[in-house]
């Protein structure tokens, strides 16, 4: 499925503006929501999700405060305590550590404060069952990797020249996100399985992971790979997110190298790079949709309604109490 979201994303970003690296309120009065972002250094969370949360809260006349957890779970735990002490009606938490969900859920339960976890899904099995007022908004992590892999496989088959050494094997490098993060693990695994599933042989030349998913990491790592002993063998660059892909592109341009490269998130800059022919594809991680679902659920549960009442959102029927926002492949 090919779609161009460039105009849409430009409009959204220009409309809501950038979000500063400090606590902010979107409006006064109405439902009060205390929200955390695991790390404002994350291009996607700070550049797409946070502005959309702020905008949709304002549209619903809710009072929203967003804080930066600075990639520290202990700091986030303290922030949750502060929100609870201030009497917010709903907590919206983008976990720093998905394995630490129990602590946050128990805090919310003790205060009888509804909790919406988003973007980072708890990894502990059954932990959502300990509290009846906790829900999750996110994606099917595997889907992004599958779509990314399908794009890569289709392009590989359509471009015989990408197989530089003519051995019939795709030699690739992988820029991986945070180790243990459900999205990073699923994207890394499923992208390659999807490529193999199309009958393409692959060889991993290198894989490096970054807890912050940063552009600087992508730049530094790609620069090192290009000057390594296998630098000239690289045929495809796969990144778990657009941010790291941006850094890799900068490194390639500095080295005078052009290689097929794919990311995930469909950030505005990625869409522009695709238009310019500097990036081959990305996968729309609908941060705006996730943000809307978070605010919609918050408004409902604060009013004592069913989480999805009056909305088009659907909770999964497997008892996971999760809303999954679909991914979309973007190649043009």
TrEMBL record:
Pfam families: Peripla_BP_4
Keywords, sorted A to Z: Calcium, Metal-binding, Periplasm, Signal, Sugar transport, Transport
Keyword Calcium: yes
CDD domains: PBP1_GGBP (cd01539)
Subunit structure: The ABC transporter complex is composed of one ATP-binding protein (MglA), two transmembrane proteins (MglC) and a solute-binding protein (MglB).
Family in the record: Belongs to the bacterial solute-binding protein 2 family.
Name of the featured protein: D-galactose/methyl-galactoside binding periplasmic protein MglB
Naturally occurring in which organism (per UniProt): Candidatus Haliotispira prima
